[in-house]
C-alpha cells in the first residue's frame, strides 16, 4: 500500500477501506507517514467527506493507536460524560459528585482549556494542592474506594488523535463533522467506559454554531458509540450564552460548589439534572421502565444528592483523595482570589437580546483565565461573573458583569471587548430566554 494512492483515492471522492484507514493511522502514529501527506489526506477528507463506515474505521483505528484504559477492575456500570466544549461549562465539577453520590462509579479523564473554552483539569487545580496526574492503578483504586476520580489525559491515550488534532489545527481542517466525531469518540472509547453521555453544544460559543450541525455531529457520535457496542446518548444544549454566571476557573469552582449547596444558577442546575438523568439511566440506577417515569425518578435522586449534602461530601472526598484542600469545599474564600475586580456598566437601558458567547470566553482569556497556546500559564483567579444574561432587562449604568483579574490593564482590554459582545435593544424580544436543552438523541 502507498500513502500516495490513499490520498488520491480520497481526493477523487472514493470510499476508503478499513485497511487503508488503518494503514494511514498506524503509519502516521509511528512517524512513518510525514505530516505533509497526512495534511493532504485531511484536506481531501474535508472536501470529499467520509461515509459512516469510514468514520467508524477512523475512530476505531485512533482509539486503538495507544493505551486503552481497562476499567474492568471497577465494579458497576461505568458511565462517561463528555462535553464538546463551551464557555462557563463547569458541569463535570458538580455533576460528577452528584452522579457518584447516586452510585455511578465516575472514572473520568478530562482535558485542559484551549482558546475561548475552559477545561475541567484547570478548574480542579483551583483547589490548592489538587493533583490531576494519577497513575492508572491509583486512579482505579480511588474509584473503587470512594466512587470517583478525575485525572488529566495520559499522553498515550489515542496518540493518533493527538497528532492529527494538532495537524488539523494548523491546516484549517478542524471543522469537518467526521473528523470531529472520530476525534472525540476515539478518546472516549479508549477511556474505557461502558456507556457514554455526550453534551453537544450549539451556538456562538460552540464548535457547532448552527443547530443542524450540532444535531448532525451528535448523530454521528451516537452512531459511532453504538457501533462500538457502547450505550450512547447525546444531549444538544445551548451555548449561545455562557452556562451559569461564572466564567473562569476558581469562579466556576465556586459556582459549582454553590450549586451543590442548592443555590446555583437555574440553567446550570437544569443541565446537570438533564445529563445526570441520562447517566443514572444508562448506569442502571433507575428501576422504572417507563421512560418518562424513569427520568422523573432520576431527577429526584440527583436533587436528593444536593438536598442531603451527599454530593457536596463526595466533592470533598474527591478533593482530599487527590491531595487538594478539602476545606475549600465548605469555605470558598480558600480558593484563588483576584486582586482587581472591575464592574462593567450598561451603556444604555434596554433588553439584552444577544451575547457573543465566544467573545465572553475571549474576555476571560484576556483577563488571564484562559490559555492561548498549550504552554500558556493560567491565572486561576481570573474571569467574569455575569450579572445579566440574554432576556434580562438592564437600566443604563446597571452592572452587567464583574471582571476579575490581577492586572488592571487586562481589565480595561476585556471591558471593551465585553461591551461589544452584548447586544442591548429597546424593544422587548419575543423569545425571553433561549431554550437550554435543544434535544436528546
Ligand atoms: N474536540 C476534540 O477532541 N476533537 C475535535 O476534533 C474537536 C473538538
Automatic annotation (TrEMBL):
MF-aspect GO terms: 1,4-alpha-oligoglucan phosphorylase activity; metal ion binding; thymidine phosphorylase activity
Cofactor(s) demanded: K(+)
Gene Ontology cellular component annotations, sorted alphabetically: cytosol
GO terms, biological process: pyrimidine nucleobase metabolic process; pyrimidine nucleoside metabolic process
Catalytic activity, as annotated: thymidine + phosphate = 2-deoxy-alpha-D-ribose 1-phosphate + thymine; 2'-deoxyuridine + phosphate = 2-deoxy-alpha-D-ribose 1-phosphate + uracil; uridine + phosphate = alpha-D-ribose 1-phosphate + uracil
Keyword Glycosyltransferase found: yes
UniProt keyword terms in alphabetical order: Glycosyltransferase, Metal-binding, Transferase
Entries under InterPro entries matching the protein: Glycosyl_Trfase_fam3 (IPR000312), Glycosyl_Trfase_fam3_N_dom (IPR017459), Glycosyl_Trfase_fam3_N_dom_sf (IPR036320), Nuc_phospho_transferase (IPR035902), PYNP-like_C_sf (IPR036566), PYNP_C (IPR013102), Pyrmidine_PPas_bac/euk (IPR018090), Pyrmidine_PPase_CS (IPR017872)
Keyword Nuclease (UniProt): no
Subunit and interaction comment: Homodimer.
Family: Belongs to the thymidine/pyrimidine-nucleoside phosphorylase family.
Protein's name according to its UniProt entry: Pyrimidine-nucleoside phosphorylase
Record organism: Candidatus Acetatifactor stercoripullorum
Taxon lineage: Bacteria, Bacillati, Bacillota, Clostridia, Lachnospirales
